[in-house]
C-alpha cells in the first residue's frame, strides 16, 4: 500500500480504530490523549522495550482487520542489530504506544516493542507473499465461521421445530 493512500484512509478511521485497539496499550507521561492520528503514528520511532533505548526503526504502515481494528504495524527496520533494513509485521500484543507531550506542546508517539533481537529476526517480512497468505487465511477463517454460524442456526431452528 502506498503511504499517502493509507494516510488519507487512516486519518478518517483513527478515532474508532485506534481507540478501540491501541488505547488499552497507551502509556502517557501526562493524561491520555483520547484520540490518535494516523499521521502521528506513521513514522513514529520504534524502540526495544525494557530500557535499552535502542531504536529498531519506524512505523511504515498500520494494518486493520475486517472490523477496522488495528491488527498489526509494519515497521521499517534499519540496520540496527544486523536486521538489514526490512519491513517486519508486529502484532498488537507485541507493542505498546507511549505518548509524550514535549515542552513545546507537541505530542510525540513512540512504539515500544516487547521482543528480543532473536524474536524480531523471526518476525514475518511484510511483502506480497505475506500479504496474499494473510488475506487468504482471513477469508478462510471468515468462511469457516460463517458456515459454522449458519449450521448452528439451522440446528437450533430444526430442534425448535421438532419440539412443536
Description of the structure:
By secondary structure, the protein is an alpha/beta fold. It folds into 2 domains: 124 residues, PRC-barrel domain (SH3 type barrels, Roll), CATH 2.30.30.240; 38 residues. The chain contains 4 helices and 7 strands. Strands 1-6-7-2-3-4-5 form a 7-stranded mixed sheet. The longest helix has 35 residues.
CATH topology of the largest domain: SH3 type barrels
CATH architectural name of the largest domain:
Roll
Mean pLDDT over the full residue set: 75
Which spans of ≥5 residues are poorly predicted at pLDDT below 50? 1-30
Class computed from helices, strands and strand pairing: alpha/beta
Would you report the number of β strands? 7
Helix content: 25-40%
The gross shape turns out to be elongated
Percent of residues in β-strands: 25-35%
Strand order of the main beta sheet, please? 1-6-7-2-3-4-5
Instruction: Report the C-alpha radius of gyration, rounded.
Output: 20 Å
Number of helices: 4
The CATH fourth-level homologous superfamily of the largest domain: PRC-barrel domain
The helix/strand series, from N terminus to C terminus, equals: HEHEEEEEEHH
Rounded to the nearest angstrom, the distance between the terminal CA atoms is 55 Å
The CATH class of the largest domain: Mainly Beta
Protein name: PRC-barrel domain containing protein
Signal peptide: 1-28
Keywords: Signal
Region (Disordered): 141-164
Amino acid at each position: 500500500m502506498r503511504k499517502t493512500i493509507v494516510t488519507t484512509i487512516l486519518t478518517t478511521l483513527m478515532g474508532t480504530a485506534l481507540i478501540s485497539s491501541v488505547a488499552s496499550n497507551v502509556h502517557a507521561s501526562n493524561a491520555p490523549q483520547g484520540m490518535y492520528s494516523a499521521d502521528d503514528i506513521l513514522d513514529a520511532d520504534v524502540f526495544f522495550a525494557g530500557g535499552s533505548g535502542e531504536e529498531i526503526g519506524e512505523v511504515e504502515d498500520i494494518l486493520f482487520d475486517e472490523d477496522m481494528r488495528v491488527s498489526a504495524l509494519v515497521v521499517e527496520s534499519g540496520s540496527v542489530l544486523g536486521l538489514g533494513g526490512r519491513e517486519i509485521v508486529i502484532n498488537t500484543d507485541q507493542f505498546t504506544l507511549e505518548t509524550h507531550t514535549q515542552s513545546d506542546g507537541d505530542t510525540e508517539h513512540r512504539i515500544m516493542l516487547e521482543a528480543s533481537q532473536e524474536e524480531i529476526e523471526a518476525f514475518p517480512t511484510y511483502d506480497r507473499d505475506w500479504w496474499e497468505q494473510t488475506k487468504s487465511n482471513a477469508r478462510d477463517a471468515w468462511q469457516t465461521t460463517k458456515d459454522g454460524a449458519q449450521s448452528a442456526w439451522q440446528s437450533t431452528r430444526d430442534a425448535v421445530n421438532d419440539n412443536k
